[in-house]
């Protein structure tokens, strides 16, 4: 299992509230299934961070790209492998 940090940067703050519950529900479901190591908002409302647990980058990217915030262009996705120490 590898870790992937998904920075989801705010792009359209005017749409944030519209998709917030769908985003939270999506992440809660993935968390219950064991795909998330950690998640939460960044300071100053610039976006959020989700650390996915996945076998490879393709799997992590597929999970991150299905986030309602990303699907609807509310936030942009920047995914990087993360080495947990």
TrEMBL record:
InterPro entries attached to this UniProt entry: Dimeric_a/b-barrel, YCII
Gene3D superfamilies associated with the record: Dimeric alpha+beta barrel
Domain (YCII-related): residue spans on this chain: 8-82
Pfam families: YCII
UniProt family annotation: Belongs to the YciI family.
Protein name per its UniProtKB record: YCII-related domain-containing protein
Organism annotation: Terribacillus aidingensis
């Amino acid at each position: 299992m590898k870790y992937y940090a998904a920075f989801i940067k705010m792009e359209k703050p005017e749409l944030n509230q519209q998709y917030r519950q769908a985003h939270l529900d999506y992440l809660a479901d993935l968390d219950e299934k064991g795909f998330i190591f950690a998640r939460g908002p960044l300071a100053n409302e610039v976006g959020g961070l989700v650390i996915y647990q996945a076998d490879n980058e393709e799997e992590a990217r597929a999970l991150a790209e299905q986030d309602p915030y990303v699907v609807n262009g509310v936030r942009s996705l920047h995914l990087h492998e993360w080495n947990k120490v």
